[in-house]
Amino acid sequence: MKQYRTLLFDVDNTLLDFSAAEREALSSLFEEQELALTPEIGQRYMEINQGLWKSFEEGKIGRDKVVNTRFSLLFREYGKEVDGVFLEKRYRSYLDKGHQLMEGAIEVVETLQNKYDLYIVTNGVAATQDKRLRASGLYPYFKDIFVSEAVGCQKPMKQYFDFVFARIDQFSLEETLIIGDTFNSDIKGGHLAGIDTCWFNPEQKPNHTDIVPTYEIQTLRDLINILNGDSPPAH
Ligand SMILES: [Mg+2]
User: Fold this and answer.
1) Considering the entire predicted model, what is its pTM?
2) What is the pLDDT of residues 215-226, one digit of tens each?
3) Which chain residues have CB less than 5 Å from ligand 1, an ion?
4) Catalytic residue at 10?
5) 221 Cα to the center of ligand 1, angstroms
6) Cβ contacts of residue 184 below 8 Å, gap of 6+?
7) Across-strand partners of 179?
8) How large a percentage of the chain has pLDDT more than 70?
9) Closest CA to 193 of 166, 219, 225, 169
10) For a designed S-S bond to 229, which of 1, 68, 130, 182 qualifies (C-beta 3.0 to 4.6 A apart)?
């Protein structure tokens, strides 16, 4: 069994439940606006939001356009004109407070911190991620936190990982493992940076790439078993 020294953890939907934070923020926003959030409207929001992010990924629109128009587009369909920029600001303020833990997150980092150096590697807004990590109780378990906004580039970019590696004590590629749920940023990113990868994949999504993660887990507790050498690697 390979011995690791350094573990790099993603945050959203790995240690903190971002999906739950999103749902809660949406319901707080609707409550504040005195609008009923029916399952149908919730579903329609998801579709509009995903469609906008897709256009962003295709380079057709900017990030600001995505976040500042998603609510105005949604409400227009229901015959209501709203200030999309204002609603986004309110939504963001609720989202920033969301810090629901993923199942087993504290227990796992508490166990692992005795034997490994733990670091956070997350794409996001620095002040927000800092606040959420502190509020969730995760913060003290990590030696350092690398948020893309503060780094100036993001996962899966090689420059992001180079920045992180340069700031880790006694860093070695061979003794480092990244754990995350997003294949592109965490697994492909880690792979391209030359480190081992552990894909946290509770929904058992298919892997459409030819990159094979070093390990694949369905629960965070599985990570402890893998590091103890109790489970065989994925390949
Ligand atoms: Mg994630």
Assistant:
1) 0.86
2) 999 999 999 999
3) 10, 12-14, 181-182
4) yes
5) 17
6) 156
7) 9, 198
8) 97
9) 166
10) 1
